[in-house]
């Protein structure tokens, strides 16, 4: 397979030129206007941010992309699917309220917002997974699959289970209905090591399933209630919680790649990632810690695998930010240095397997040519 083209620009702008204009210029240079959008429905998949989180992408970026789609005659809409955990986006009504509070509406984005899997997260469609090894079928939000064209607009960041949250996670996990998210997360469930647990209760605050209680000052996870999302693992600063299935995060990443294949296969797609406000954890958190790395820039490509690989490479070469989770870990004299900014931020993660499997099943290639635009 020949190298895919990935287009890149940094966040520098000259006086009189806005960053959204620069974004539009980049995606046009990358070829988004070559897609025949005339009269067609165009899904723009993004994350509206959990309430309390401030690192999600601003709605201005969504409007910039939607405006380009409309210039091409397309009918854009923003979309995301409901969450598996009971936060502020667990059903369409609360999800839309959350989006609106965080600044996403028809005025700020220039298009409608449709929650992809309906009111209760059950409006999905079963989609075959080409070359799927773990998922032969994927449960994808119906509105996502009803679109003629699919565009992912991603906030590239760290993640407590998958290492990084890039295009593949935005597409695969983000487009899964609640049943689809459950299918991706059910590879393993965490357990608590009593000797390491301090009873700080931070894990219980992060649990979206109310599966964690305390006995004799130690956390106990109800395996029947637990959904296996892994948020408690990322929350524990004492390494007292781990997945009893040692390769659960590896399998999670591979399933996300297969779900992304289901979403993208057989129709035009385009992918954009903004590598900024690189928080250590997902935007699904109701808070965001300080960025672990400096802002990098904007990447765009027709290939989501090449796009993620280019973003990863840029982050691996970046210098850790002071006073961040990453720099604190590296400053610990007992820390085992992985020489990997994602692993050194969240040591329980597995991220390489996601890209390897995505390439294996034909979603894209990890080989890319980086084309820089000033």
How many DSSP helices?
A: 14
Poorly predicted spans? none
**What profile does the largest beta sheet have?**
9 strands, mixed
Q: What share of the residues lie within helices?
A: 25-40%
Number of strands: 15
Radius of gyration: 20 Å
Q: Roughly how many Å apart are the termini?
A: 28 Å
How does this model look, in words?
The strands form 4 sheets. Strands 1, 2, 3, 4, 7, 8, 13, 14 and 15 form a 9-stranded mixed β-sheet that branches. A two-stranded antiparallel ribbon has the order 5-6. A two-stranded antiparallel ribbon has the order 9-12. The relative contact order is 0.18. The radius of gyration is 20 Å and the shape is globular. The longest helix is centred in the C-terminal third of the chain and has 17 residues, at 248-264. Helix content is 32%, strand content 20%. It is built from 14 helices and 15 strands. Strand 2, helix 2 and strand 3 (75-80) form a beta-alpha-beta unit. The model has no long low-confidence stretch (mean pLDDT 94). The protein is of the alpha/beta class and 374 residues long.
């Amino acid at each position: 397979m020949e190298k895919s083209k990935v287009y890149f620009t940094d966040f520098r702008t000259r006086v009189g030129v806005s960053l959204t204009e620069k974004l539009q210029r980049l995606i046009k240079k990358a070829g988004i206007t070559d897609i025949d959008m005339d009269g067609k429905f165009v899904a723009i998949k993004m994350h509206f941010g959990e309430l309390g989180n401030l690192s999600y992408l601003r709605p201005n970026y969504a409007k910039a992309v939607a405006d380009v789609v409309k210039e091409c005659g397309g009918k854009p809409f923003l979309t995301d699917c409901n969450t598996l955990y009971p936060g502020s986006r667990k059903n369409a009504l609360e999800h839309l309220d959350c989006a609106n509070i965080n600044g996403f509406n028809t005025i700020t984005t220039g298009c409608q917002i449709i929650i992809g899997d309906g009111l209760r997260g059950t409006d999905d469609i079963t989609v075959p997974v080409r070359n799927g090894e773990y998922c032969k079928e994927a449960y994808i939000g119906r509105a996502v699959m009803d679109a003629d064209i699919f565009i992912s607009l991603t906030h590239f960041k760290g993640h407590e289970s998958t290492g990084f949250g890039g295009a593949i996670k935005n597409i695969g996990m983000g487009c899964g209905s609640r049943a689809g998210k459950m299918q991706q997360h059910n590879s393993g469930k965490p357990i608590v090591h009593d000797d390491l647990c301090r009873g700080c209760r931070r894990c219980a605050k992060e649990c979206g399933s109310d599966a964690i209680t305390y006995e004799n000052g130690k956390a106990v996870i109800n395996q029947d209630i637990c959904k296996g999302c892994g948020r408690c693992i990322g929350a524990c600063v004492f390494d007292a919680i781990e997945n009893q299935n040692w390769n659960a995060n590896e399998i999670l990443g591979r399933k996300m790649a297969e779900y992304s294949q289901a979403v993208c296969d057989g129709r035009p797609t385009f992918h954009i990632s903004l590598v900024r406000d690189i928080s250590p954890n997902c935007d699904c958190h109701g808070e965001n810690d300080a960025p672990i790395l400096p802002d990098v820039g904007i990447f765009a490509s027709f290939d989501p695998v090449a796009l993620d690989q280019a973003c990863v490479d840029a982050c691996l070469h970046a210098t850790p930010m002071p006073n961040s989770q990453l720099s604190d870990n590296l400053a610990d004299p007992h820390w085992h240095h992985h020489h990997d900014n994602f692993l050194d931020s969240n040591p329980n993660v597995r991220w390489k397997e996601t890209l390897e499997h995505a390439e294996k099943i034909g979603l894209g290639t990890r080989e890319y040519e980086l084309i820089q635009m000033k």
